[in-house]
Amino acid sequence: MSSGPHPLPVPRLPRSAALGPGRGGQPRLLIDAPAASAQIYLHGATVTSWIPRGGKEVLFTSRDAVFDGATAIRGGVPLCLPDFSTGIHGDALPKHGWARLVAWSLRSVEATAEGGVRALLAANRDGLSLLYEVEAGSSLGLTLSVRNDGAHPRTVEAALHTYLALHDVTSAELTGLEGSRYWDNLTSGPGPCDGRSSGGRLRINGPVDRIYDSTAAVSLTDPGNGRVITVSKRSAPSTIVWNPWSAASALPDMADAEFASMLCVESGAVRDHAPVIEPGATWSMQARIGVEAL
Ligand SMILES: O=P(O)(O)OC[C@H]1O[C@H](O)[C@H](O)[C@@H](O)[C@@H]1O
């Protein structure tokens, strides 16, 4: 009999959750609870699906996403940490940090009193201990905690790189960022405060890649699906808005035309807002995604 790799410890699961192979045979927690269904891959602790009961899929995951246990998953909520993009000094590798690239362990899974499921995942590396709590219910709660296990203060960038599914991005309107300053990654410069001239709404009709200074909750209308997606957050002073537009065709793991049915609205603490975590201290941030009828 062959003695294969030592299996990872599996926590006791409620009846509304199953751990098994998902796409590409990758370990995945499948949730089917009274309040919602959801999927979480242990690779990168990537939530790839959340469907509130009676509703439609809220998270976009590309049909060409690569599930090989090495590549970052194109869609859902990849975690960017300890760097966002190439980091504060512009030279950090891998891009967006290692958190989305490593296998996380599943610490606990429990049914919530509200009919959802709460999963706790953990990863340690590079002098940092990460804990990630995913609560999939009538809303999706994501809480990321980072402990500095090293002897020196650490500056850590973090973002919940949330891909939201839309019927048609050009008919969507994003509100909540009006009047906020932003850095435009497309021009590598600061953008004008926008939203004022358009009555507070941001419409997407081309590529967008902006890092907003904003703690505000945002709403994204999705008229084709008859809904508004809301994102509220705590300790996350950055909001990143990204759609590659047709440049997505250069991405090997995103299918042609899919850019029309997604918008990333990412909650984080990046660049000037990156927290400095003292030795032994823990910093955490939270985002909550909800859906309302339009
Ligand atoms: O292709 P990835 O490494 O996943 O990055 C996807 C995107 O992430 C963020 O939204 C950045 O602001 C973009 O500049 C970047 O292109």
TrEMBL record:
Enzyme Commission number(s): 5.1.3.15
Keyword terms, alphabetized: Isomerase
A UniProt-annotated Pfam family: Aldose_epim
One cellular component term from this protein's GO annotations in UniProt: cytoplasm
Record has Cell inner membrane as a keyword: no
Classification via Gene3D superfamilies: 2.70.98.10
Compositionally biased spans, kind Pro residues: 1-12
Active site: 161, 266
Reactions this protein catalyses: alpha-D-glucose 6-phosphate = beta-D-glucose 6-phosphate
InterPro entries: Aldose_1/G6P_1-epimerase, G6P_1-epimerase, Gal_mutarotase_sf_dom, GH-type_carb-bd
GO molecular function term, any single one: carbohydrate binding
Region (Disordered) residue spans: 1-21
UniProt record, GO biological process: carbohydrate metabolic process
Sequence similarity: Belongs to the glucose-6-phosphate 1-epimerase family.
PANTHER family: APOSPORY-ASSOCIATED PROTEIN C-RELATED, GLUCOSE-6-PHOSPHATE 1-EPIMERASE
Protein name (record): Putative glucose-6-phosphate 1-epimerase
Gene that specifies this protein: yeaD
